[in-house]
Structures are given as C-alpha cells and as structure tokens.
Design brief:
The complex is a heterodimer of chains A (378) and B (214). By secondary structure, chain A is α+β, with helices and mostly antiparallel strands. Chain A folds into two domains: 198 residues, no CATH class; 171 residues, Histidine kinase-like ATPase, C-terminal domain (Heat Shock Protein 90). Chain A has ten helices and seven strands. In chain A, strands 1, 2, 3, 4, 5, 6 and 7 form a seven-stranded mixed beta sheet that branches. Chain A is elongated, with a radius of gyration of 34 Å. The termini of chain A are far apart. By secondary structure, chain B is an alpha+beta fold. Chain B folds into two domains: 107 residues, Rossmann fold, CATH 3.40.50; 96 residues, Orthogonal Bundle (Arc Repressor Mutant, subunit A). Chain B is built from eight helices and ten strands. In chain B, the strands form three sheets. Chain B has a four-stranded antiparallel beta sheet, with helices on one face. In chain B, strands 1-2-3 form a three-stranded parallel beta sheet, sandwiched between helices. In chain B, strand 4 and strand 5 form a beta hairpin. In chain B, helix 6 crosses helix 8. Classes of the chains: A alpha+beta (378), B alpha+beta (214). The interface between A and B is medium-sized, with 24 and 25 residues.
Chain lengths: 378, 214
C-alpha cells in the first residue's frame, strides 16, 4: 500500500498533502477551545512527518510551509491574522517552521536511502541470477569443447597407445560434440537476433505439409524412439510465413518433446486452419491491397505423453534461460523462448497447457492465406 | 578452414590451389583457370559478391559459394549473380563432395544429355516422357516444364525466382504459391513418399534441387 502511495503522480501528491494538512488543521480548529496552539503545532508537525514518509520532497516542503502558515493564521494569537502577538509565539513560529522543514527533509532522506537499499538488493539478485544462467550456458558450450580438445589431444600426441578402435571412437566423440556445439551456437544466435529486436520475418508462401515433414525428417535421429503422429488438415491453404523461423519453432518444440518425454511415447502434431477468426490485417499501406488480402489463423499443436509441466511453472517456461526445477542437466533453456520470440515476430501466440498424461503446445498465427484451388494447372 | 578443405579435396583426388584473399584468389584463378572454384562469401578484403561478379566476367566454369545460415538473401543473390551452388557453414564433407561432383558433371556434360536417369525414375527430355518404375507418369505441361528444368540442372539448386521466371514468366517471380502447388503435385506423382522426397529436395529459403542419387 505504501508502495502505491509513493508512486502517485506529483500532482496527486500535492493535492493529497495539502488536503491532509488542511484536514488536520480543520480538525484541530474545531477543538481549539480545548487545546492549546502549541499542541496544534505538534499535531501539524506529526501530519507533515507522515506526509514525508510517503511523498516526494516538494509536496512535503509545501505541506510543511502551508502547515506553518495555517498554524500562524488560525491558531496563534491574534487569530485570523499573520501577525504574531508575543515574542515567545514568534520564536515558536520560527522554530516550528525550521522543525517542520528539517523533519520533512530528514524523513524524506530516510525514505530515499531505504529505496536505494532495496534497489541494490534487487540488482544483486539479478546479477546472481545472471551468473547462474551464465554458468549453465558456459557448461553447455564448454562441455562439448572439452570433449573435442580432449579427443584431439589424444589423437595428436602419440597414438601408439591408441588402438584403431580407440581412434575411431575419439573421432566419433569429436563429431558428436561438434554437432552439439553447433546446435547451441544456433540457439544463441537466434536468441541474439531476438534480443536485438531485428527480427523482420521474410514472409513467403509456405506449404505446411512440406514444412512439418521437413522438420520431422531432419529430426529423424532424435525422434527415432518416439511414435510420431501427424495430422494436417486436408486442403490447408498456403500461409505467408517466414519459412526459416517457423522451421526453427517446430524444430525446437519437437526436439524438446524428444528429449523430455519417455521413449516409445507418442508425439502428436496437428495443423489446421481456423477460419472463424477471419479479419483483415493492415498488411499494406495501399488500401486496395488491404481489402483484397484475407487472413486466417494457422493453428499448430504439438502434444506429448510426457510428465507434463508443474502448473506454477507454465507461465515461466518461455522465459529466457528458464529451466524447470526438476530438469535434467543439459539444455540451455533457450529453446522455448526462441519459439515464443519467433512466433510473436509473426504476431502469433504460443501457449502451453497440461493435458491428461502429457502436455500440449498451441501456436496460433494470423497469416495471409492463398486459395490454391484457384490456380490454373494445364 | 582452408587447410581442412585442401586435405578433404586432395584426399578425394582433386588438385587444389587456395588463397586467403580475394586479390590472391582472382590472380590464381586467372593464371591457372581451374575446373571449379569454391568461393567463401566472407573474404577479408572484398565481398564474395564482388569477387563473383568479377569472376563471371570471364570465368564460365562452376563456382560454389560458402556462406552462413540465416543469410539466405546473400545466397540467393549469389546464385542469381552466377554462382552454381552453395554450401552453408558448417557443412558436412559428404555434402561438399556431392555438390562439387554434381557441378562438375553438369559443366562437363554440356551437350544435352537427353535422358535423366534417377534409378526408379527416368526423364526423357527428347521424347518429353517421364517414367516411374517403368510406367509412364502423366504430367501436365506446366508440371513437365518444371520437372524438366530441375532435371536438366540435376544436382544444382535453382532459386524460387529463377523457377518462377522460367516456368511461368517474369511477372510471376513473386507468386511463389504456384511453385509450392506444383512441387507438391510433382512429388505426389514421382516420389515414392511425397512427404519424404528423394528427388525434389527443398533448399529452405533458397530454392529447389533435383537429385538423381547417382
């Protein structure tokens, strides 16, 4: 609550400070028959202190000054004038002013420094998080590099101790490590592109059939222990998408499914068109073009029979570097954030939900479609 | 990379000369014109494109460019500027050798080879006939035009724009949906499994390639 008050605009803070001072003064005034003007001074000082706890320096100083003036006018004899009767009261007035100001400034300072401490803590927390992530990333990259260096050292130093079989295995290790490293570098590059904000999808007509099977064929090895079920709607239109980005999206989702779900389980891919949400996108500055283009939603779902996701983490899995609390080592946590970034660069959305016995990723992208049935073929 | 390529190529019976800079490369090429040039687009002193243009002023033999992924525009531009094929770093040695061999084969066999033999598939360019498993395959005129174009450049990648321009006409270079439809239709007719094509291969973001597998 206090946090909310501190964030009010300067104008609101002004108004509220003034209102509080006036209210306090009014309250005192109504009982001025029973309390002495010195008591009123303390009450007003209290009010100013309270204001100083939550508001910025300028409203506080205003409140301090205002309260001093109000105190003078309404409570010091002779009342209803700024004139001060006795020397003692004049001294009191001066002291009041000074104390109100000091109070205001000091309380404000305390508030400021507390804020700084909190910010510092937050910053340290972020730095710590960053370091953990950097460590994990470092591990992901350095491990295959270590394998390569180890294997090559062995092969380069004298190989009389190595059998032919050994040599072959070492070379295999180098091969596996290199491919893995390549994969991670690709991920980092994609992440980098996303971070820089320079993702401008280069859209061209995409045959979803071709795209899906292309990715599956590329992942043949990774998916060999899973049952893949593909269902693509008949007569699906062609969509204007960036082939490379969408390829990466599907690749990451399927790759994740292959490594995080138990072997021999099913992975289902559904692709369909959602024409219910037809609307015209402002795709071109020329009005004619705008009227003629038609967009539908491309809906892709990737469903697995794996362990699903802990409900409280579902919102976070798409964050950069996020790894599930029970994740096995390996993997940078970048895959899903790349998926999200690339899908969003198409103005699409990606959502995750648990389904009975598994999880389902749903991607929806509004895209221009092409009615292929109208094409001439002779 | 240079040393690696030299070893790879020499161990596969090719004679290799290499250069680190565009200047040296152009000089060597002019002095001993090779049968094929592998050109890295990321040269230190000059862009690969500029080198390619200079080469193409007089060099008619195959040029294969090396580039990095997510640089499809560069690749397409190079292909349009006269490169015959491309490889994306990091590439597998097998792919490198396949592309080199295919590029050399095309350049050597410039006299029209009228029959393209791809195992189960035969394309007789003179008779305009396509046979799959010894049975004639019925293709529409457009389908045949597309297939024969790819088959004539067997092993070589043809860009989307090139295919659209040659098969449909210059006004169609941005109508890639036509290309998609026809490639899909061709695959259904000539491939064993249209979803796992062996002959008509997609080169993401760049174009298509016909592979005979020989």
């Amino acid at each position: 609550m206090l946090q909310r008050l501190t964030k009010l605009s300067s104008f609101s803070q002004f108004l509220i400070s003034i209102a509080l001072v006036v209210l306090a003064a009014a309250g005192c005034f109504t009982v001025s028959a029973y309390i002495d003007h010195r008591v009123v001074a303390l009450i007003l000082l209290l009010t100013v202190s309270l204001i100083a706890i939550v508001f910025d320096i300028v409203p506080v100083l205003t409140a301090a000054t205002l309260s001093a003036l109000i105190w003078n006018f309404f409570f010091i004899q002779p009342k209803f004038t700024f004139h001060i009767g006795t020397a003692e009261d004049a001294f009191l007035f001066l002291m009041y002013f000074v104390i109100a100001l000091i109070n205001g400034v000091l309380t404000n300072r305390i508030r400021r420094s507390e804020q700084l401490v909190r910010e510092k803590e937050k910053k340290e927390k972020t730095v710590k998080l960053y370091n953990t992530l950097l460590n994990s990333l470092s591990h992901e990259l350095k491990t295959p590099i270590a394998a390569i260096i180890g294997a090559t050292d062995n092969l380069l130093s004298d190989s009389s101790g190595l059998s032919e079989e050994n040599k072959k295995q070492l070379v295999e290790e180098i091969s596996i490590a290199s491919l893995r490293l390549n994969q991670q570098v690709e991920n980092l590059l994609s992440m980098s592109r996303l971070e820089s904000g320079f993702i401008a999808p280069k859209k061209d007509w995409v045959d979803m059939n071709e795209l899906v099977y292309n990715v599956i064929n590329r992942l043949e090895n990774a998916l060999k222990n899973h049952k893949i079920q593909i269902s693509i709607e008949e007569n699906l239109p062609y969509y204007k998408l960036d082939y490379g980005l969408m390829e990466q999206v599907l690749y990451n989702l399927l790759y994740n499914a292959s490594i995080y779900t138990p072997p021999y389980t099913e992975i289902q891919i559904h692709v369909k068109n959602n024409a219910d949400k037809i609307y015209k996108l402002d795709l071109d500055i020329h009005d004619q073009r705008r009227i003629r283009t038609e967009t539908n939603f491309l809906v892709i779902t990737v469903e697995d029979r794996g362990p699903g996701f802990p409900p409280e983490e579902i919102g976070k899995v798409f964050e950069k570097f996020y790894r599930l609390s029970n994740a096995r080592t390996g993997g940078t946590g970048l895959g899903l954030s790349i998926v999200k970034g690339f899908v969003e660069s198409h103005n699409g959305t990606v959502t995750l939900e648990n389904v009975p016995h598994g999880a389902r990723f749903t991607i929806e992208i509004p895209a221009e479609i092409s009615h292929i049935n109208n094409l001439k073929n002779e | 990379m240079r040393r690696l390529l030299e070893i790879t190529l020499e161990s596969n019976s090719f004679i290799v000369e290499s250069a680190e800079t565009a200047r040296d490369g152009l000089r060597i090429a002019a002095n001993h014109p090779p049968d094929l040039i592998i050109l890295d687009l990321g040269l230190p002193d000059e862009t690969g494109h500029s080198v390619l243009k200079k080469l193409r002023e007089w060099y008619t033999k195959p040029v294969i460019i090396l580039s990095v992924q997510s640089n499809e525009e560069d690749i397409v531009a190079a292909l349009d500027n006269g490169a015959n094929d491309y490889l994306v770093k990091p590439f597998r040695t097998g792919e490198l050798l396949a592309r080199i061999r295919s590029a050399l084969r095309i350049s050597i066999a410039d006299e029209q080879n009228t029959v393209v033999d791809a195992g189960n598939l035969q394309i007789d360019l003179a008779a305009r006939m396509v046979r799959k498993n010894n049975e004639t395959v019925k293709l529409t005129a457009t389908e045949y035009k597309l297939l024969s174009l790819l088959a004539q450049h067997e092993g070589k990648v043809l860009t989307h724009q090139y295919l659209l321009r040659e098969v449909w006409g210059p006004g169609y270079i941005n109508q890639s949906q036509y290309l998609r439809v026809f490639i899909a239709q061709l695959r259904k007719k000539i491939e064993l499994d249209a979803n796992r094509p062996q002959y008509l291969i997609t080169e993401s973001g760049v174009g298509y390639r016909f592979i005979s597998g020989k």
